[in-house]
Amino acid sequence: MVMDSRTSEVAGYLLLIEQEMRTQGLWSDRVPTEHDLSSLEPFSVDRLDFEEWVQWIFLPKMKVIIEQGHPLPNVSGIRYMAEHVFGQRRGSWKPLLKHFESFDLLISPSS
């Protein structure tokens, strides 16, 4: 199995996302219910806040992909969703949005 050359950089962005979420007070110790985690909607918008989706679904799934050497996804629009969500809230979201944008650019295939 050949490791994707982007894997360590992706892992770094995932850590930066988690760190910034903690800094911004978006990290929670409250685990969502199995029902909430089983949503089939994009970003689980019907059951979770965006930051809950990032913490409890996105980051754990990406961690499994990296740890088990699965192929990285080839598309991500997480920055656009984050921009939509945080654009409606007060706060300094630029660092977090930048990490999401860097992740998206790294994941998306070069043109």
From TrEMBL:
Q: Which domain of life is it from?
A: Bacteria
Where does the record place the YqcC-like domain? 10-105
Q: Which InterPro entries does this one have?
A: UCP006257, YqcC-like_dom, YqcC-like_sf
Question: Which terms under GO biological process does the entry name?
Answer: single-species biofilm formation
Q: Output the Pfam families linked to this UniProt entry.
A: DUF446
Output this protein's name: Uncharacterized conserved protein YqcC, DUF446 family
Q: What is the lineage of its organism?
A: Bacteria, Pseudomonadati, Pseudomonadota, Gammaproteobacteria, Pseudomonadales
